[in-house]
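Supplementary Methods. Inverse-folding protocol.

Structures were first reduced to a discrete structure-token string of length 211. This string, shown here, constituted the complete conditioning input.
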């Protein structure tokens, strides 16, 4: 299970079999000394958005099989959610939807998601979207670089890396691009992997020498 401290955003991995059978466990963050509460798996609710249900719960806890590719999507347009679910599922992602900042904070407490897609339907971002962006941008650098963030908005240009950087994302897309995610996303992911290959190799080497 992936745990992120709400005090300093440091990332920890905890084996689920080590969690107690009770509903709540806790430990102290070695970095900032904040007490971290862990919710042990609770009942999940299947919420239908069309062809395929997605799973959510009030605490944000969900366990994924090792190696599962996971995606979080913010999209206030109900009908568009069906298309985004279809496109990202076709790319091999388990898709979950968020509505506000508390949702992403809750979800990131237990799992480090691979992909985040943010949909902006107007020229100005709504408060919920802005708050979610602020949380993503507050993540520690080594955590943030593991996550691919795509921002869809009216003026999005997937060829403009400066625009993406200014919006705190890895890729900006226009609304028509949504129908071509299966062609756009794989090459964008490959480009990011190449860009940060040396960074993660050096990080892994340092961690290996430390432990």
């Amino acid at each position: 299970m992936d745990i992120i401290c709400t005090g300093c955003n440091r990332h920890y991995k905890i084996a689920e079999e080590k969690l107690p059978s009770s509903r709540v466990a806790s430990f102290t963050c070695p970095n900032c000394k904040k007490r971290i509460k862990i919710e042990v798996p609770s009942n999940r609710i299947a919420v239908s958005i069309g062809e395929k249900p997605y799973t959510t719960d009030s605490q944000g806890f969900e366990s994924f099989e090792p190696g599962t590719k996971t995606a979080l999507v913010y999209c206030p347009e109900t009908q568009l959610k069906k298309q985004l679910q279809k496109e990202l599922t076709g790319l091999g992602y388990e898709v979950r939807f968020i509505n506000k900042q508390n949702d992403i904070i809750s979800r990131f407490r237990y799992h480090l998601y691979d992909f985040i897609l943010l949909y902006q339907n107007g020229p100005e971002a709504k408060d919920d979207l802005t708050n979610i962006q602020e949380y993503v941008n507050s993540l520690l650098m080594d955590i943030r670089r593991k996550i691919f963030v795509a921002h869809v908005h009216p003026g999005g240009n997937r060829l403009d890396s400066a625009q993406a950087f200014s919006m705190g994302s890895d890729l900006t897309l226009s609304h028509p691009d949504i129908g071509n995610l299966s062609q756009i996303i794989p090459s964008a992911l490959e480009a990011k992997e190449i860009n940060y290959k040396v960074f993660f190799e050096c990080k892994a080497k340092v961690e290996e020498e430390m432990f």
